[in-house]
């Protein structure tokens, strides 16, 4: 089973009057049979209602009463019955998978409306893609339920196509495009409920139709050995085309020209840049998260609201306190009309068995801010071409393994109760609000799952297959498609530029998506000062761009394609949890469970397990332009074709009997580079240059006692290691730093606070007898704080673009990018960017 889905979704609403019964269903999502064609969708099957399990919980009732008077699920007819209005959390499960959700029970449903002003769906012969969002206004109950709720897919509104030959309403409520709409043309779907009829304009797009590319940098030759970048437009209308062109031009220029983004500049010849533009129906992106009712103002007769995403992850003036996001994860969201004082709330929270809740991380101002951290409405979705969404709805969740038992009663000091409570509050743990991903309401589970599984027939992959350079029949889209069987240089180098100034950026392997600014407030408008239920974002016609941040963000996000992980911190890891024993997959981050030396409780780190500390510094290098060949005459060795550009350097190495090393280029399909492989078929040290064939652009390497050499493929690296004055090869970590790490077995952070996440660069501790670089935070070693966590996770240096985009790349991350794109430039990287004091530099060759 790939996933377990809950339909209609995980943030349910039901009304005692004015709406039909609520019948949620569970569905398994599985791979198609092995005999199916590659285009076969995932198999979505409904779980028999008699096999579905639902356990409800009343989080706002006093301790001891939270399992009483809760809704029940009927295994006979699949309906939910609720004895009273209120807010309830639940666990739904089948087999080894579970989902958590929320149910709000209201007295009545008063009215409804479409949550889309218009909607784009895909042309498809069998599968419905886009699902219309439907919102409702409920009665003003005294239990704190939301007045406005998301009733998408609940069955409360009857959807009907006005012309089923052009757009079809599928049984699951999704819309299947049957005929492509032309510019300025739409089809229509109606909705009916409570005596109210609304109409939704629908646009149908053929994502497999040919889409033209423009070439911005590089050439069409040798595409397989280049890193091909593709920029795509999301949330740009036809009238915004020139704006998109301007952005692509400037981003490309600054990425390869500004020193702050090295090593991209030195590697420019290894890249091609392309762009494709397809207009969206609306500009800006859909917001998945709720938005607070922060403040209002009247502008030209319109009431404008200004709020921030819920939950807000910004830290206040006291870094030792929870953020609002931290607090929401612990205690949930406030009910409508919450009026209790901070002492009253803190007293209650202390009685509720909340998972690892620390009262000393909460002060009265934080509680008062939390009480206002809610919304009175839901923003309309935006109609964009690819259907991206900033943030994630609480309604849209993926399943996990391991349902927990429901306790028989809400008793005191019961570990089963504490485990069940922790499970219920998982509902308030969600993806970061700055995450940008595909909206599950635009992309059906047959081709897409919320945890990021993207089927080969997903509309995004269809689009990539369809891109063409005008006048060329070259199937260039294959450069960006995944191939589980082999490594592709360009896979992931697709940049979706999102025409939005709201802070957002994500790399989701197939591509990255990035907005144009870091605004954390957003404006929205109501139809009138009285009617507040309908809310639309209030975009400017030309959104402001922070050029420096946009390019830095692009450089950061593209670096994930080179298997670099994030080095920033958002949370403190609970150190009572078991430590995973495996290393992290990204090449620049690691974790304590893998690096631990001795007992885990000691928190001692073994530097000899740190994969990046073994990277060699390189004095001279060349890349093989053809596969290696064993030769016997005039000398016995391995012949390497490296080109005619630098044979003089290798002749000098021959006359001086300088050691040469050979390392294979044979990355796995996932692109991992570390740890460096040391087997004889991947790595040969101790070689000498036996002959330089200048006219051929080749050298022959020899090694005493070796008569036959393994095959080294085109793209492999031959290099001369940089050595100290004693003839010892140098690694990226200074020997005195490594000795210090081996002695102390601790990270180098001078700041001992590992529990408080920070964005600041980390300055290392003083190391006796060692002169740090002029910017000490660039020192290479082991620093704590990476991969979203402030503790138990490690990175190479105190500052890096993978930690904060405006910074430069640290030397380790730059080394790994150069090693992927053009390892012949290692010597240039070392000469210009290696972080050492002038005193240390003089000691090396």
From TrEMBL:
InterPro entries per the UniProt record, alphabetical: MetalloPept_cat_dom_sf (IPR024079)
Annotated spans, Disordered: 16-38, 745-764
Basic and acidic residues bias (residue ranges): 751-762
Record protein name field: Uncharacterized protein
């Amino acid at each position: 089973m790939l996933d377990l889905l809950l339909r209609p979704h995980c943030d349910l609403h039901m009304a005692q009057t004015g709406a039909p019964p609520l019948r949620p269903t569970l569905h398994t999502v599985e791979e198609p049979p092995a005999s199916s064609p590659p285009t076969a969708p995932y198999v979505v099957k409904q779980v028999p209602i008699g096999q579905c399990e639902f356990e409800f919980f009343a989080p706002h009732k006093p301790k001891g009463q939270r399992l009483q008077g809760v809704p029940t699920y009927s295994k006979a007819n699949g309906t939910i019955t609720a004895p009273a209005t209120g807010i309830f959390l639940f666990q739904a499960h089948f087999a080894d998978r579970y989902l958590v959700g929320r149910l709000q029970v209201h007295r009545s449903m008063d009215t409804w409306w479409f949550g889309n002003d218009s909607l784009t769906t895909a042309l498809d012969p069998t599968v419905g893609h886009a699902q219309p969002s439907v919102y409702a206004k409920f009665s003003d109950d005294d239990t704190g339920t939301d007045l406005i709720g998301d009733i998408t897919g609940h069955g409360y509104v009857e959807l009907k196509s006005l012309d089923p030959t052009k757009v079809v309403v599928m049984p699951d409520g999704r819309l299947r495009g049957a005929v492509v709409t032309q510019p300025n043309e739409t089809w229509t779907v109606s909705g009916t409920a409570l005596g109210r009829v609304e109409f939704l304009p629908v646009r149908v797009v053929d994502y497999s139709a040919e889409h033209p590319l423009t070439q911005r940098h590089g050439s069409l030759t040798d595409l397989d050995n280049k890193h091909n970048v593709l920029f795509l437009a999301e949330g740009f209308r036809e009238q915004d085309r020139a704006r998109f062109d301007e952005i692509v031009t400037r981003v490309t220029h600054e990425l390869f020209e500004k020193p702050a983004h090295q090593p991209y500049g030195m590697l420019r010849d290894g890249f091609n840049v392309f762009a494709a533009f397809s207009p969206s129906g609306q500009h800006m992106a859909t917001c998945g998260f709720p938005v607070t009712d922060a403040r209002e103002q009247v502008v030209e007769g319109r009431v404008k609201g200004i709020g921030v995403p819920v939950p807000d992850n910004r830290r206040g003036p006291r870094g030792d306190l929870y953020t609002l996001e931290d607090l929401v994860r612990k205690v949930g969201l406030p009910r409508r009309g919450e009026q209790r004082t901070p002492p009253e709330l803190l007293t209650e929270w202390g009685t509720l068995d909340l998972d690892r809740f620390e009262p000393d991380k909460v002060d009265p101002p934080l509680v008062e801010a939390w009480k206002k951290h809610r919304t009175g409405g839901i923003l309309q979705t935006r109609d964009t071409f690819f259907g991206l969404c900033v943030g994630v709805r609480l309604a849209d969740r993926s399943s996990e393994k391991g349902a927990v038992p429901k306790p028989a009663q809400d008793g005191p000091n019961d570990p089963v109760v504490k485990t069940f409570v922790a499970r219920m509050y998982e509902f308030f743990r969600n993806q970061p609000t700055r995450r940008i991903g595909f909206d599950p309401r635009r992309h059906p589970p047959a081709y897409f799952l919320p945890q990021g599984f993207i089927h080969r027939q997903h509309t995004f992959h269809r689009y990539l297959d369809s891109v063409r350079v005008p006048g060329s029949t070259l199937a260039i889209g294959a450069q960006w498609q995944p191939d589980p069987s082999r490594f592709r240089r360009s896979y992931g180098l697709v940049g979706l530029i999102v025409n939005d100034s709201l802070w957002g950026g994500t790399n989701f392997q197939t591509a990255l998506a990035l907005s144009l600014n870091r605004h954390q407030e957003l404006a929205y408008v109501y139809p009138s000062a009285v009617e507040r239920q309908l809310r639309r974002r209030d975009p400017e016609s030309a959104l402001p761009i922070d050029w420096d941040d946009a390019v830095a963000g692009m450089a950061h996000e593209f670096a994930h394609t080179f298997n670099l992980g994030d080095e920033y911190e958002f949370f403190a890891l609970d150190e009572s949890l078991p430590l995973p024993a495996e290393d992290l997959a990204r090449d620049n981050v690691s974790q304590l469970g893998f690096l631990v030396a001795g007992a885990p409780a000691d928190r001692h780190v073994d530097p000899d397990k740190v994969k990046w500390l073994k990277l060699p510094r390189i004095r001279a290098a060349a890349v093989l332009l053809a596969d290696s060949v064993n030769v016997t005459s005039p000398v016995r060795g391995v012949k390497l074709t490296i080109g005619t550009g630098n044979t003089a350097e290798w002749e000098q190495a021959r006359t001086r009997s300088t050691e040469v090393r050979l390392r294979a280029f044979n990355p796995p399909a996932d692109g991992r580079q570390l740890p460096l492989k040391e087997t004889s078929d991947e790595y040969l040290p101790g070689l000498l240059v036996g002959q330089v064939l200048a006219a051929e652009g080749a050298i022959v390497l020899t090694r005493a006692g070796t008569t036959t050499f393994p095959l080294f493929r085109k793209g492999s690296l031959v290099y001369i290691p940089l050595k100290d004055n004693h003839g010892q090869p140098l690694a990226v970590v200074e020997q005195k730093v490594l000795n210090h790490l081996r002695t102390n077995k601790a990270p180098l952070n001078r700041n001992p606070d590992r529990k408080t996440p920070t964005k600041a660069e980390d300055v290392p501790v003083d190391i006796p007898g060692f002169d740090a670089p002029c910017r000490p935070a660039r020192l290479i070693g082991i620093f704590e704080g990476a991969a979203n966590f402030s503790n138990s996770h490690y990175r190479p240096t105190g500052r890096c673009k993978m930690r904060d985009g405006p910074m430069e790349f640290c030397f380790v991350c730059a080394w790994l990018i150069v090693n992927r794109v053009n390892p012949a430039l290692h010597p240039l990287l070392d000469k210009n960017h290696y972080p050492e004091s002038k005193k240390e530099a003089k000691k090396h060759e």
